[in-house]
């Protein structure tokens, strides 16, 4: 699982609090990767106009491939975190860099709590 965490956090840092770290150790399937990329492409070409729209797209993609995520509660919390931070950036309350740092910090905390209970 650590491999997936690092790979996906790398994508998160460059793409505004987007991806998850709750997937399998081998990383996301090609289908999920394509869904993530479709969301990013839509955001890049302004079909998705806000970070919140992009976060909702990514959350929907993850829900479509929910079987890839062993801890559904962690996934739900991570998706809520993603959307909350995206909305704060859209509203100008925090910067994207602040959101990325908060996402990484809180996701690490959520994963530790999940591991302690699982």
From TrEMBL:
This protein's name: Lipoprotein
PROSITE patterns: PROKAR_LIPOPROTEIN
Organism, scientific name: Kaistia nematophila
UniProt keyword annotations, A-Z: Signal
Keyword hit for Signal: yes
Residues in the signal sequence: 1-21
Origin superkingdom: Bacteria
Keyword Signal: yes
């Amino acid at each position: 699982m650590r491999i997936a965490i690092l790979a996906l956090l790398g994508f998160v840092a460059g793409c505004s609090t987007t991806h998850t770290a709750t997937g399998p150790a081998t990383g996301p399937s090609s289908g999920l990767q394509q869904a993530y990329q479709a969301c990013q492409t839509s955001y890049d070409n302004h079909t998705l106009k806000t970070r919140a729209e992009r976060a909702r797209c990514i959350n929907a993609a993850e829900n479509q491939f929910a079987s890839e995520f062993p801890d559904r509660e962690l996934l739900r919390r991570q998706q809520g975190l993603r959307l909350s931070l995206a909305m704060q950036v859209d509203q100008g309350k925090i910067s994207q860099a602040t959101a990325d740092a908060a996402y990484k910090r809180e996701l690490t905390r959520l994963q530790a709590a999940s591991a302690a209970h699982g």
